[in-house]
Design a protein that fits this description.
Number of strands: 2
Distance between the termini: 17 Å
Number of helices: 6
Helix content: 55-70%
Structural class: mainly alpha
Mean pLDDT: 86
Strand order of the largest sheet: 1-2
Order of helices and strands: HEHHHHHE
Largest sheet: 2 strands, antiparallel
């Protein structure tokens, strides 16, 4: 939507000081920044990626092949008997196995960092949009 507005817009906010060409360029720069921020806020279109994703994916596949999806093959006869008697079910994840714990932890930290980055982008984008959608600003927009 912002891309279309930037590509098809014939105006800019009326309170900009400068020539028409300068104001259009400034407005296009603002819209471009908002477009960038919202694209970065979307997990599918974000340019930043988890640097551990490929290694983590291989480790997940290997873990699943060795121990099954939720580590069923890690259970001892004692664990199985305890689960039956207590009516519980233990799920094992990669970080429960020392050989996979390192990559799992690194991947989780990187995902949290990416989530924080995308949240910052969304907030910055929303602040910029809010600045241009208030009733006072809408009356100043020169079309």
């Amino acid at each position: 939507m912002l891309h279309d507005l930037r590509a098809n817009s014939n105006g800019y906010p009326g309170y900009f000081d400068g020539t028409d060409d300068e104001n259009v360029a400034k407005w296009n720069q603002i819209l471009g920044k908002m477009e960038f921020l919202f694209r970065e806020a979307n997990k599918e279109t974000c340019r930043r990626k988890n640097s551990y994703q490929e290694e983590y994916g291989r480790a997940c596949d290997e873990f699943t092949e060795k121990y099954s999806t939720f580590g069923e093959r890690l259970k001892t006869e004692e664990n199985i008997a305890k689960e039956k008697s207590e009516h519980t079910h233990r799920l094992y994840m990669m970080d429960d196995v020392p050989e996979y714990a390192g990559i799992s932890d690194k991947w989780i930290v990187a995902e949290k960092d990416l989530d924080a980055y995308r949240d910052r982008c969304m907030k910055q984008g929303m602040v910029r949009v809010a600045g241009f959608t208030s009733p006072q600003v809408e009356r100043c927009v020169k079309w």
